[in-house]
Amino acid sequence: MSEAELIEVFLNYVALLDSQLLGYISVLSGFIVVSYFAASKLTTLLAGIVVTLYSFTCGLFLTRIVFLRRDFVELHMFMVEQRSANVIDIPWFGTNPPWASEMLNYLMIGVTVGGYLGSVLFFFIQRGRACREA
Description:
Helix content is 84%, strand content 0%. By secondary structure, the chain is an all-alpha fold. The chain has one domain (3-133). Helix 1 packs parallel to helix 3 (98-133) and helix 2 packs antiparallel against helix 3. The radius of gyration is 20 Å and the shape is elongated.
């Protein structure tokens, strides 16, 4: 694989990861807005359906992000090894420590799981608020 192909694959992974994260943030934002305006108006059955669909969607996004990040880290490590062995000459690549890419995996997982848990908690807080006011 040539340097140009490696860079293209690398940048495609970055773009795909960004699009998955932005899709997740869009779903998360939509759920928070729905929670604020409609959580108190839903029946228990509908609330269960909404939370289940939201959980399934977040699970899909999280799974995609984890798998893509894992592949991305492997590609990054391969490129660092190739640069260290002087097989490829990419002067700007490999200046970050190798553990930084792995750390981003845990950070991204923490952000997505934390956002999911926080949004579901907000949904039930909004639902409980309506019960207390009634």
